[in-house]
Queue: 3 jobs
Job 1
Amino acid sequence: MKLFVLKADNSKEMDDISEELSKHKFNVIEQQDNFILMKRKRYGNVLVHAVFLVIALFFFSIAIFVNVIYFAYSFLWASPNALITTEKTDDEGNPLEFDTIDEVLDKATAIL
């Protein structure tokens, strides 16, 4: 799961960005004075789940395990995290690489 880092100049801008992400089903995981950590849970594509269930019911029961693995992958590893911060450097003094909100929303709404 990739951590997207978004830049904010002040706490007002952090709140504005978090409200925008909240409209796209992101939830606040942790919040402090200088950052907000948000996550959107993904469960997988409904069509893919339906296809695997039909295959499991009529042909091969092993397909249900593939469906569970796909769900676990979507939920645990494909769910995007967004860190909104006012910091410019990490703990070691290296400059942070910032993403755009469009990149975050593209990943959050991706089908697979």
Job 2
Amino acid sequence: MTDSDTSPSPQRPPSGDGPRPAVPEDPKGPHREARLPPLWRNRDYNLWWSGTAVSGLGTHVSALAFPLLILAVTGSAADAGIAATCEAAGRVAALLPAGVVADRHPRRALLAGASLVQSATMGGVFWAVAAGRPGLPLIAALALAQGVAAAAFAGAAAPIVRRIVPAPQLKAAYARVQARDFGAQLAGAPLGATLFTMARWAPFLADALSFGAVTLACLFVRTPLGPDTAGRTAVRPPLLRDLLTGLACIRSNPFLRYAMLWSAVTNMLLAGLGFMFIVTLRGHGAPPSTIGGAEALASACALGGALAAGQVVQRVSGHRIILIVSWMVAAGVGSLVLLASRPWLAALCLGASLVLVTPLNVVFTTGVMANVPDATTARVLTTMGTAAQSFAWLAPAASGALADAFGVDAPILAIAVGLALLAVANHAVPAVRRLGAGPEGSGEAAPDAPQGKER
């Protein structure tokens, strides 16, 4: 396998790959992007995107099948929740160590190894179901192992897009990643239900096989995936200090501090919204089939926005996207209270408010990447991911308690108020106000970006 990159990229290679001739400065500045080959001609990005798309589809297929399997075996919703909790616990617990490992050891090997472990765990679930022995302890243990392996993969995958895509095309690349995820989510649920109806083991076999696609993608990407070893000392810092490096980097940078807080609060509010959308429609008399259709409609709107995000982020400044979309989401969620008795209108309202969430995510993601050197990318992003996931689990329980105490509309209003406060903060925080002067390129250079030499 070669580590050379045949696709043009302004990213500097690791020092161990030898010097690259200096590229003269482009007098046209931002218009340099027009001379780059389009993303569809970037072999490594398309290989990576395709492999992770297949794997993501398999993950959403099995995510629907897991609770259906436990319900069919034990008839207990609590038991179904145990398996989901084990997977989430493994993922959250392993994220920080995964970031440290990904910044210390070859990421290509970590990605391939984590994918193979995930394939083996899903193969274990398939074997247990096909053999007629899908006991809860075994399924829970396999779900825990799956969560740990997923965290290991996420840590090693964090810097990959930035390494295989030229900087001016990062926004478009991240927009396509968001579209990939929405598409996998939209297609995975009905496919998982269909496969489970055909045979209970079928969704888990499909997921096990899907990890083969991302394993091959990891092996055949030609760009060096890091971490770069030039300039590193032979003596590694203590593990605890390495675990806290991501947090120290975030604390030292105003934009990263705000981005971590913003992502944690937003994830918590949107997790509560996803739960309460179902509860509110049901509380206003909507049958389950209508609720499922309404959720699919809202997801389709979000997918449409994700598909258009690449064009939006190239034409509108990042700061303007943040301000407009923040208020759109807050207003759309608040309007659900008025439309809850009309499920299809409620779904259209929710979908319209979420249609530009992908450009918002892309702006924050590229801003974060502009502030983080490759050597610490995995640790910083896994720290932010841990913060985001650590609070999201509180939302359904808190929303349910509010609904029981004050009615189903109260949590929706509380979520809308929370989103409105975030929108106000986006106006007030200097780090956000200075996020990019224009839409060109990747990385509207985020404020207070590290000034060290890129490896």
Job 3
Amino acid sequence: MRKLMAAVAATTGLLVLLLTGAPALGASGDTDALDGLDYVSLGDSYQAGYGLTPFSNTSPFAGDPNGCYQADGNYPHLLAASFGLTINDQTCSGAITANIGYGSATVPATDPNVILPTLPDVSTLQVTLSGMTAPQLQSAGLSADTDIVTVGIGGNDLGFSSIATACMRLTVDSDPAYLEYKVGSFDNCKDYFDDEATYPSAYLKGRITDSVAPRLAQTFAEIRAAAPNAQVFVVGYPQVAPNNATDACFTAPTTPNAVPYNGIDLQFLHDIEQQLDDTIQSAALAANFTFIPTWDQTAGNTLCTPDPWINGITLYINTQQDCDPGYLPADSEKWICVKLGALHPNEGGVLEVANIVQQAIAEWAQTRGVTASVGEVVQGGQVTLSGGGFGPNETVQIELHSTPVLLSSVPASASGTFSTTLTIPTDAAPGPHSLVARGLSSKRTFSTPVTVTAASPASEGGASVLAEGGMDSTTLSLVGLGALLGTALVAGGATLALRHGRVARVKR
């Protein structure tokens, strides 16, 4: 039985890519805003739609099978169809951050462990579930022309599939079987993975902070370098294991959609996945990427709920030469076969994640373009122009058309937005014009109409236009009044003086 469980665990370790990807969709609203934009999707099996069929043997590269198990119905494809995007889907089941790429950087090495995978410290081509080596890194699909990126990654760096395998048990009261086979007897797998003092290389909280976090940071930096003008959305993982689970959730590994974990280990899996998701969010925000959480939205549809969006584990003992379609062998002898999609989102889960991502992208799409604070502005007057959808931190050049007149050059924010106050030239021709904003790096151009009105005569020569001698008409009027008063006073003074002199002569 221990040998059987070890083989089952090995199969699950190969296929249970517990933290990787999925699809979804409702109405996307105004799809014209994004129609034709270049979209690249990156990441692991949760993004690839592992377990959904049909899957592609040509994307992200040709091979029969290529081992990525990228589904035609994964959420990147659903999003592309909804928004009219041109998609380059690089997602592949089993991917780690190194398979997206670190550029030329080196990341911290991982300590060897009998359960957890040893991770490369440099960019590495992926070896897929079918044993095929990918011809390029996923980041090779990115360029300066890429407009939108979605990425979900990190679960395989943590080794969640290996953790899930180690925590499986034959009965609710037995010890975790594969952990016993590889390490020794433990009442719960948490006793092994959460004991930093005794098993430091297996301490998962430390692995997340010391190994996963720097890998996420370097991968996100490489994405930005390879796609400098793209809006990047980092998609968080949905909840797999329930919170506050009990032993009642346990089902034996030989039953369909099995959940072969006791309550303590389900809670441990839940807590570790949440820490990982929080770490991914922090790395995304530090990179000025948009993080799309799916954690709270999927809390009611985990394993052990009435309507789970996550597949359990389904396996069978094989007596034929090959596994049935939709299953993969546990080892080279092919005597145990495991169904594709174990511990991954089912169709309902894929649709929910897709809807969440779609809403976030649709909200971003509403910020694309430019708007003026007023529709009419007088010659020499001011207008505030706000815009979005430009490359992060790129310079945006703003002109007044029809005849282009440069008004300003401003930097976009890290999210590709700007707002600036412009002064319309005093010699701008009255009539309809356009304010045109163009990103110098992304070459994205947006415009909005504005009508220039003629300045009034008062504006041209009155209070705002100086008369000869440097005084406006109001000043001249005041000066004239002062002169008149001054003349009257002088005349009055002279009269008084004459009268005074006459009186003086009389007195003499």
